[in-house]
Amino acid sequence: MKTRFSALVQLKKDTMQKSERALERTNADINSATMALELSYTSLQDIQTPTTGTISDFLASRELQNSARNLIVKNHEWIKFAKEQQHIAREKLKVDTIEYEKFNYLEVEEIKKLVKEKGQALAKELDEIALMTYKKKF
């Protein structure tokens, strides 16, 4: 049953679903950032420090370790950013859900009102028909 709120309810529902998808994307970003952090920790542990060799080997190893540590810092920042985005998406979803529920409630109340009015009109019409047929019998 169409009401004056139907289009608005559909719009709010679409907005809420977009917010849900955005939250899912941020969750996926957090998961991929966490996996990247774990991989960077394992790659740092896998770096072998040379015990013998030339100074260039030692410098290369140190530079590799520094690079791995920098990658770990970047991954920590990525996780922090992704969590901030998740928080923002969660708050937006909360607001959008409240808006959707509000207008959905108004639509349901409007439908109840219309059904009640139609029921009263139908009852009135049936009463009139009953009165007409009752008078014809006598």
Report on the architecture of this protein.
The chain is an all-alpha fold and 138 residues long. The protein is 90% helix and 0% strand. It has a single domain, classed as Helix Hairpins (Orthogonal Bundle). It contains two helices and no strands. Helix 1 runs antiparallel to helix 2. The model has no long low-confidence stretch (mean pLDDT 92).
Query: What is the structural class?
Result: mainly alpha
Number of strands: 0
Report the end-to-end length measured between terminal Cα atoms: 42 Å
Largest β sheet strand count, sense and barrel closure? none
Q: How confident is the prediction overall: mean pLDDT?
A: 92
Give a short summary of the structure.
This protein is mostly helical and 138 residues long. It has 2 helices and no strands.
Give the tags.
mainly alpha; Helix Hairpins; 90% helix; 138 residues
Give the helix/strand layout.
Layout: H1 6-46, H2 55-137
Helix pairs in contact: 1-2
